[in-house]
Amino acid sequence: MEEDVVGVPIAHDKPNKKRRRNKKGSNNKGTSPPLKISFSDRIPSFDTDLFPLLLASASRDGSNPTAQPLLRRLLRRIRRWLLRSSQPVPPSLLSLFPLLLSTSSDFVVELSVELVGVASLKSVDQNKAITSDTAVVKALIRLLTSGTRQTARAVLTALMDLSVTPFARDRLREAGTVHKLLYMLCQEMSQDLELDMSQINKLLVLILDMAVLLINTSNIDFSDKISQALVQKVLPLLSKIQKRCSTYRKISYMQSQVHEVSETIFRISVGIPRPNFSSEELRSYIFGRKESDFKDFLLNFWEKSPVLIKKGSKNFQKSDSIFGSLVNYVNPKTTDSIIDSILQYSVSCPAIVSDELDINQFLNEMKGFLGSPLIYNQDIRIVKTEGQSNKKEEHFPFVDKCKEAFNNGYSIALKGMEFRSDQIAPFSLALSELFGLPSIGVNLYLSPHAAQGLARHYDDHCVLVWQITGCKSWSILKDPKPVMPRLYESLDNSFASDKAKKTEIVLKEGDILYIPRGYFHEAHTVMDTSGPHTSDCSLHLTFAIEVERPFEEEAMAEFSLFKSSFCKGAVYEDACSSFGLLLEKYRKARRPYMNGMLSLHRKF
User: Fold this and answer.
1) Over the stretch 416-463, which tens digit does the pLDDT of each residue have?
2) Residue 582 counted as domain residue
3) Residue 370 contacts by C-beta under 8 Å, 6 or more apart in sequence?
4) DSSP state, residue 14
5) Both 253 and 339 in a single domain?
6) How far apart (Å, rounded) are the C-alpha atoms in residues 569 and 563?
7) What percent of the chain lies above the pLDDT cut of 70?
8) Do 385 and 241 belong together in one domain?
9) CA angle at residue 207 from 134 to 172, to 5 degrees?
10) Where is this region: Disordered (predicted)?
11) What are the distances in angstroms from CA 160 to CA 5, 199, 261?
12) How big is the chain by its Cα radius of gyration, in Å?
């Protein structure tokens, strides 16, 4: 077997064809013996013997009919040598890559592309040398769409080889590779809209794997450089792939997994502009047109007493620009359609801690998790409460059997709705601005007819309850806990008594109820007998307003003394300015998280 030798021509290249013997006396002056060049001794043999041949044949591949066959033979032997040898690639060969990648023969181009990939895996230094050559990078990106599908597959394979180093990935992103890949993804899926599982679209798989790799290893700020028009075209396609990712991966040997595609969707969505309305608009809608109406609520009811803030109009219209957007989130025709509308595309929303100011850190911690199914207790609870006295909650921790549980009297409680619904998110943002908070969490509760979900309890935060569809009766104890609960402290429901005085409030569609922290409450579904109703079941949202005083009453005196001494050494305005900066940093980190999670739940 020939070892590390390039021979031109090679006597055994075409063993099945008989060579013509020269007749006696024929003119053999133009024939030279086979040229043998060995790579095994020293690199100079390449520079002095092979480099001139490569340069000459590559330069004349369009004008000389023997140039392309010669190029093919040389490149085959170089590829063999690169795969076998541990020596570095000669710099003179690296310098020829731009010329080789621009030849007119598809076969020569594909061989040259393969050489680029093999050479890039030799060492980190050679990888850097190749990707630092702008002409090589531009040629590879150009070949993605200017050559044949087979050439494009070869280029994508070489790009995967190049992308083993962070430097190479940065260079490819800077050169516009991601934009080209996303454009190719749109083009390829326009021909494969149904993602036919009976056929393996290798080009689509390679495009996806390469795009996922470059996007998921970038800084989150890179997403801002992708045009929004392209993002809007790509998101539905990635969503379709995400939902069929597991099956598609098994059939087509796709490297990207569902959580990696989910991370890509998350990343390119962080800068999407989303519809919103102002806090003033929501304040006027809920509390009244006058600014003093909101102040009256804070003075008279905040942490003092439950109150029915807004009562739904008898002439209520679903086209209402505010409330109508919430109703449109669900399909209230049947209970099955409601469950489908809120759960069909739901994935787990991992918690982002309150002091997390860097979304990149969050994404690094969540590697391999985004796009995971709903997790019981973290994302969803399926619960019912029955009995006349000593009522206890009964849980049903089987998320995939929600409809069966619902038909058996269980309520569905879904957390983090501000990250799951484009219609609910604007309410969370507007309320957080109105109350001066970093964020406001939203939970959804869906209960069947004549059912109670959670047992009697109190919350460690104030709550706004907004009835979306159906009707629900609330029972609230008039006397709260003796000491207001602190945020995140352990809850103690032993203070609740069946003999305590209660306030009964029935919520109908459009009604909003305020419940202060520390007030025991429970609710069950009832029929609205006063007029037409849209559903026998009940669906309401709860907005968690996590505001509390820094100290209880007995500690206020000591705090006042400390505040007095503190203010002598610090300017109040400076403290407010620092708090504002911190609040803005937190919101800046939370907004990309919200945008990313909303796209993972979006129904394209």
Assistant:
1) 999 999 999 999 999 999 998 888 999 999 999 999 999 999 998 999
2) no
3) 259, 262, 263, 266, 347, 350, 600
4) S
5) no
6) 10
7) 77
8) no
9) 20
10) 1-36
11) 29, 23, 17
12) 34
